[in-house]
Structure formats: C-alpha cells, structure tokens
Design brief:
Elements lengths: L4 H21 L2 H17 E4 L3 E7 L2 E6 L2 E4 L5 E8 L3 E11 L5 E12 L2 H6 L4 H18 L3 H6 L1 H16 L4 E12 L2 H43 L1 H17 L11 H5 L1 H23 L12
Antiparallel strand pairs: 1-4, 2-3, 2-5, 6-7, 7-8
C-alpha cells in the first residue's frame, strides 16, 4: 500500500514549518524537531478507501481492523501487513488437456466471481488468499470435468456452474471468502472430434427429414384412400372430377389432350355429352379461328 498524498503533504508541511521556525528563532533544533514530527506523521497516519480494511498487528499479534477513512498506527509497534479489498473480484482460470468422464480431452475456460466477507480470516488463515482461491478454482474445475460426460458439459453448463460454485465455496469458506458465481466461458474440443460431431448432426438432420417425408406420404395416401371411398359411393362426383381434370389439361397452351372413344360413354348420361360439347365449343372454335387463313389485302392499281 503506497503512501497517501495527505501524509506526504503533512510531512512536507511539518518539515517546512520546522525549518522556517528554526530560521526565525535561530534555533537549529527546531528544524530537526519539525522534520522528526513530519517523519513520525508519515509513518503513523494512513488513509483507507471506502472498500478497504486495514489489518493492524501490534507486536506481531492481531489487534484490530480499521477503515475506511483516517487511521493512526503507532510507529515501530504496530504494522499494517494487509489491506483487504471488499469489492467483488473476478478471477479467470483454465483447465487444459483434461479428460472428461467418457475420455475426451478438452480445454475449459471459466471465470469466478468472489468477495471477502471476513477480512480477519482472509489475512490470518491463508498466506495469499488471491492465489489460493485461483488454485482452488482450477482444481475444482478439473474434478468436475473428470466427473462429467462431454455431451453434458456442452449442453448443461448451468448445472456445472452451480456445482463449481458449491465446491469452491466449501473450500474457501474457512478463509472468509464467499464464491458468488462461476461461469464457464468456453469449452474447446479437438478438431477431429468437431468434424465427427458435425457429421453426426448432419446425419441426424437427414434422418429427421426422411421421417417427415415418410409421414407426409402416409398422410397423402390416407387422403387418397378417403377420396376413393367417397368416389365409390358417389359416381357423379367421380365424373365431375374427370371433367375437371380434362378442363385443366385443355387450359394449357400448346397442349393436345387425347381422350379414348369410350371415355364419354363411361361417363354416361346427357350431362357427360353436354360437358364434352361445351368444352369443344369453348376451346376448339377459337383455335379453328386462329388456324383459318386470313384474306390478303389487294393494293389499288395506280392510274
């Protein structure tokens, strides 16, 4: 923890005041006293920020926590070995070349969000709590990977995040540290396995497409079966359907429709003959008019 500008300014003010009074009073010891007081203030006065707590030891034993704001430390008797940050801290960690439960080597990147809830334990129970929590998180991540299949790791990240948070929290609780959340950022798998998984996904989509097509064929066949039963019970509807098919075919340009000679007799009745006659009048007459030769126009002879 560096010196605060306030303490540096106080030291400079006391030293300058001592020198000034020594010149005025013509007493050298006044300058020495001013410099000594400034140096004493430089060693004893500390400023803690709003998010900081100072761990103060007196003659090597824990005495108190101070902060935030202005605090005084007795020089040569009390020391401040740790300034504990109470804000939420992020720690990224990785697990490289780690085997999953089904024997796949993966690289996993994750980030841990944690906070110090007991500054005394964080300072006294572990040597370096930041490094300790980083190693603890990495070890927990390797343990989770070894207990999880690759498919579960790719699709169930939220469940793995919760398990990681619980494991890390159990390890860091004696240190006065609370694991707030864990998020897996990326799971990297070998390139060869990526290609195999891509082929598997493509084959699965093709299988689903074929199943959907087969279901569609079954539905169409069922509809045709229902239509056949309806036509069997109502021959007039079948004849009307045949006329409709014939009409649709004759609507196409440059299309020749050949109807067997017995097709009209199979339709039976005057209605069939009237329908065919109407179709002939509607489509045959305009085509005959188009095919008829046009008379030539003679130009008048000049006199």
């Amino acid at each position: 923890m560096g010196l605060h500008p306030f303490t540096i300014g106080l030291f400079a003010a006391l030293a300058a005041g001592g020198v000034a009074f020594s010149v005025i009073l013509q007493q050298p010891w006044v300058a020495a006293a001013g410099i000594a007081l400034g140096f004493l203030g430089l060693l004893s006065i500390r400023i803690a920020q709003e998010w900081q707590r100072a761990v103060i030891l007196r003659l090597g034993r824990f005495d108190r926590l101070k902060g935030p704001g202005f605090l005084v430390v007795v020089p040569f008797v009390e020391t401040v070995p740790y300034w504990i940050d109470l804000r939420t801290i992020t720690t990224p960690f990785t697990a490289e070349q780690t085997l999953t439960k089904d024997g796949v080597s993966v690289d996993v990147d994750a980030v841990l969000f944690w906070r110090v809830v007991d500054p005394k334990k964080a300072a006294l129970e572990v040597e370096n709590y930041r490094q300790a929590i980083a190693w603890s998180a990495q070890t927990a991540l390797r343990d989770i990977i070894g207990e999880t299949d690759l498919a579960e790791m790719l699709t169930g990240r939220q469940k793995i995040d919760n398990r990681l948070q619980e494991m890390i929290g159990q390890r860091t609780e004696p240190w006065g540290i609370k694991a707030l959340s864990v998020e897996i950022r990326d799971v990297k798998i070998p390139v060869a396995l990526q290609n195999v998984m891509s082929m598997q996904a493509q084959a699965e989509r093709e299988r689903q497409a074929r199943v959907i097509l087969g279901d569609s064929e079954v539905q169409v066949a069922n509809k045709f079966h229902e239509a056949a039963l309806s036509y069997t019970k109502n021959p007039v509807a079948l004849h009307l359907r045949a006329l409709n098919i014939l009409l649709e075919g004759m609507k196409q340009n440059s299309t020749v429709v050949i109807v067997p000679s017995n097709a009209v007799e199979t339709m039976g009745g005057v209605g069939a003959m009237a329908g065919v006659t109407s179709l002939a009048k509607e489509f045959a007459v305009p085509r005959l008019q188009e095919a008829a030769p046009r008379p030539e126009m003679k130009r008048p002879e000049s006199s």
